């Protein structure tokens, strides 16, 4: 069984200079349905979660100021977004989508959020277009409910940017293992310490990238024995990406997803997938690469 979180709120409303990269949130579900990759019944509309589900990973004062529009100008500038009530509704809905994906993945094996992967959000601040850390909140939710049977979580962050917020949030949490494989010279310039960081040189191609992933991920599964996986499948690793500086082809990106999701399926590990970044100049390159992630998941679980 496959579940997909999607709401049109993901793309609206944002300033004009942010409209292009956010178009994928509208175009991707249309393509998934048009190509018959997933049935319409796979989609669900997420809602904002209770505050307690956010406050496990975010400070109460930050969350309050975020909701009431009391961020300082410097804090707002660091997020990359001008504050608005609609923006906060969008961010909390994205987080709610990943939370619900986690619950559904426990039942069906896999769930995907059309948005999500806001890995630059720290406990007390937002950065890099991330205000609330959705995968961190969902991981903390699972661990806070022992009856769900999740004792250890693995976060596999393959966005081109290091998951600095996620690393910081779980720095003192042994039940969550954070693995980030990212561009060495990319944002953020000041990196945090994940449990495992693999920093890649500019121009890393399919062969080098996939070889490193294939020698790393099975070892992490063996050593840390997770009960649940969160996968951040950013497509800003593509050679066409204007911000990424790596050189993966669309097929290399698809093979990456097939390897990660195939291992989860093989080991019977429930997995939540969030789309993360993608900044290729052609929106079709972004949407096609994300659609390939869903196609891989559908082939495995449908």
From TrEMBL:
Pfam families: Hist_deacetyl
Record keywords: Hydrolase
The UniProt record lists the keyword Cell membrane: no
Keyword Hydrolase: yes
InterPro entries on file: HDAC_classIV, HDACs, His_deacetylse_dom, His_deacetylse_dom_sf, Ureohydrolase_dom_sf
Gene3D superfamilies documented for this protein: Histone deacetylase domain (3.40.800.20)
SUPFAM superfamilies associated with the record: Arginase/deacetylase
Histone deacetylase domain segment(s): 22-290
Taxonomic superkingdom: Bacteria
Family membership: Belongs to the histone deacetylase family.
PANTHER family: HISTONE DEACETYLASE 12 (PTHR10625:SF19), HISTONE DEACETYLASE HDAC1-RELATED (PTHR10625)
Protein name in the entry: Histone deacetylase
Organism: Hymenobacter endophyticus
């Amino acid at each position: 069984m496959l579940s997909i979180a999607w709401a049109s709120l993901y793309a609206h409303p944002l300033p004009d200079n942010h409209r292009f990269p956010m178009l994928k949130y509208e175009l991707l579900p249309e393509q998934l349905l048009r190509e018959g990759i997933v049935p319409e019944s796979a989609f669900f509309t997420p809602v904002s979660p209770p505050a307690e589900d956010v406050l496990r990973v975010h400070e109460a004062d930050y969350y309050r100021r975020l909701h009431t529009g009391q961020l300082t100008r410097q804090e707002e500038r660091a997020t990359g977004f001008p504050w608005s009530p609609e923006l906060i509704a969008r961010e909390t809905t994205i987080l709610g989508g990943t939370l619900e994906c986690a619950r559904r993945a426990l039942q069906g094996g896999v769930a995907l959020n059309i948005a999500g992967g806001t890995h630059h959000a720290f406990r007390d601040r937002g950065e890099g277009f991330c205000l609330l850390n959705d995968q961190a909140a969902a991981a903390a939710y699972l661990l806070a409910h022992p009856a769900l049977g999740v004792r250890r979580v693995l976060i596999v962050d393959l966005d081109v940017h290091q998951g600095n917020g996620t690393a910081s949030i779980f720095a003192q949490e042994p039940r969550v293992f954070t693995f980030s494989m990212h561009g060495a010279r990319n944002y953020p310039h000041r990196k945090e310490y994940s449990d495992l960081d693999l920093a890649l040189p500019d121009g890393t191609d399919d062969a080098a990238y996939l070889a490193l992933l294939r020698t790393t991920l099975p070892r992490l599964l063996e050593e840390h024995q997770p009960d649940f996986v969160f996968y951040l499948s950013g497509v800003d690793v593509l050679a066409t990406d204007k911000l990424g500086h790596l050189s993966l082809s669309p097929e290399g990106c698809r093979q990456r997803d097939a390897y990660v999701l195939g291992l989860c399926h093989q080991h019977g590990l429930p997995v939540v997938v969030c789309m993360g970044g993608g900044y290729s100049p052609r929106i079709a390159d972004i949407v096609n690469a994300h659609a390939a992630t869903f196609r891989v998941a559908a082939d495995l679980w449908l």
